[in-house]
Amino acid sequence: MQHYSPYEIIKGNPANGLVLLADHAMNGLPPEYGRLGLPETAFARHIAYDIGVEPLVRRLAGALDAPAVLGCFSRLLIDPNRGEDDPTLIMKISDGAIIPGNHPITQEEWENRLNRFHRPYHRAVSQTIAQTATAGERAPLVISLHSFTPAWKSIVRPWHAAVLWDNDSRAVFPLIERLEAAGDIIVGNNEPYDGALRGDTMYRHCMTPGIPHALIEVRQDLIADAAGVDAWARRLAPIFAELNALPELHVYHRHPSRTGAYEG
Prior knowledge:
By secondary structure, the protein is α/β, with parallel strands linked by helices. It has a single domain, classed as 3-Layer(aba) Sandwich (Aminopeptidase), CATH 3.40.630.40. The chain contains 5 helices and 11 strands. The protein has helices at residues 53-64, 107-136, 172-181, 201-207, 226-244; strands at residues 7-10, 18-22, 68-71, 93-94, 97-98, 141-148, 151-152, 155-156, 161-164, 187-189, 213-219. Helix 1 (53-64) packs across helix 5 (226-244). The model has no long low-confidence stretch (mean pLDDT 96).
């Protein structure tokens, strides 16, 4: 069995205090999984990864000299943005596509995917955040990037970008304010999704320890090519730099989650 890295770390200056994350950056699979019984075309769809996010995060990490962690495996294999006990961790069907390689699945294979992909990715995220906190001697600011489809079940989504969050608004409101300042885009506030998801990446690495954070999604058609990625990198880089310069976004403070009480 060939070695397959479940994550990639982009080096940056941790003393800057900013960490970028991209859970669904890539659509890769180790060779032994084939295509999970799906046609190749499935891996060009949003069900396999967040279209446009990988090049966008690479551009932003370079522009901001920020470390970033990218997931290298398809969310069809196992979803890094889900808790280990989430029933949607390994999907049997996604947006109408049945995934033969995921059903039936043995408990042994379920655990194998956790050990080979999900857990190493989250260890890399934890280590990168910890290194940044140590280097900067303060809480880091963590920004997670995703992308969403222009329409869902024939319903057109009007938002150009969306900011999703649970109950810690420290970075959220300044981010929305700056995104809307140019007056040329519509920004969703917990639309088209609600950002409170117990056990997901932001819950695990930011809500639980009290680290300032935000999750931003960009509509996929806007970053589906190099020109779109360039435009959004130029839009987002100065905004992220402004947020990172705010002292209040480098303070630990645990907010209660809308999903219920924390364990322990």
